[in-house]
Write a structure and sequence with these properties.
The chain is mainly alpha-helical. It is about 60% helix and about 5% strand. The protein has helices spanning about 1-15, 30-35, 65-70, 75-90, 95-120, 120-125, 130-155, 170-185, 195-215, 230-245; strands at about 20-25, 50-55, 60, 165, 250.
């Protein structure tokens, strides 16, 4: 019973990290021979385009106005996590609380490095960017960074928090990416009714906009509900082996080690 309660506590904290995140995967960081081998497995418009990760629906289409409405709610979600931790600090014994806190901090620090890298390298790997898109990546980065700093200030004041200098490839492959994939699969089963209605309305809006501008329908990415664009196994093999074959330091730069 206690373990189930701790698992629920931890899962609710981590879920917020995946709640509405924009990202991109540059094809330039993937070897040409690998791209050729995976050509039939990669969904159209999956690479070299900015996409949205919805905690309940998987990967979806990025719309600046719609994502801005999502992003403004993110600081409140992180603030709620702080309050959640403060409340649990009084309920749990010290070893239990610090175990969950340290595990969560590890995830926060990793995703801070990821969103920082995405922001820093946005102009390098993406063309025809407008100021709004550039700004939204910077804001996303600042929101994650602020949450990380607040966690340190609230819970690590009496001790030095050692920042990771970089993330080793073996860590990413064995820990972080499998965890991300398994959690997305888990959260897809927890689709709330309210969220379903909101996503459906947004899909209708996107489709109307596309009809008005007479854009080609075969280029659009539809919002995902319960089935991902590719299977969990395909996604894991593709992301682990080919896409994230890099080391990230705390400044979001690729290391040469």
């Amino acid at each position: 019973m206690i373990q189930n309660s701790l698992d629920t506590f931890y899962n609710e904290l981590v879920k917020t990290l995946f709640h509405d995140v924009i990202f991109y995967i540059p094809s330039k960081i993937i070897p040409i021979d690998v791209l050729k081998n995976l050509e039939s497995q990669i969904p159209p418009h999956f690479l070299d385009e900015i996409s949205l990760l919805d905690v309940y629906y998987g990967f979806g289409e990025f719309d600046l106005t719609e994502f801005n409405e999502r992003l403004i709610k993110k600081p409140k979600l992180f603030e709620n996590n702080i309050f959640y931790l403060l409340g649990k600090q009084n309920e749990l014994n010290a070893p239990e609380f610090m175990y969950i806190l340290n595990k969560y901090m590890d995830k926060v620090e990793f995703y801070c490095a990821i969103v920082n890298w995405l922001s820093i390298n946005l102009k390098t790997f993406n063309r025809d960017l407008n100021f709004g898109t550039i700004g939204i990546f910077e804001i996303q980065n600042e929101i994650y960074k602020t949450h990380f700093i607040e966690l340190i200030n609230c819970f690590y004041r009496e001790e030095e928090f050692l920042l990771k200098q970089y993330y080793d490839l073996s860590e990413i492959i064995k820990i972080y990416i499998p965890d991300l994939i398994s959690r997305i699969d888990q959260y897809n089963l927890e689709v709330p009714i309210k969220s379903t209605a909101e996503v459906l309305r947004q899909d209708e809006k996107v489709q109307l906009d596309k009809n008005k501008t007479k854009k080609s329908t075969n280029k659009s990415k539809k919002r995902i509900k319960k089935e991902p664009l590719i299977s969990e196994k395909e996604a894991e093999n593709f992301l682990l082996t080919n896409v994230f074959n890099i080391k990230l330091n705390c400044n979001g730069k690729e290391t040469t080690n």
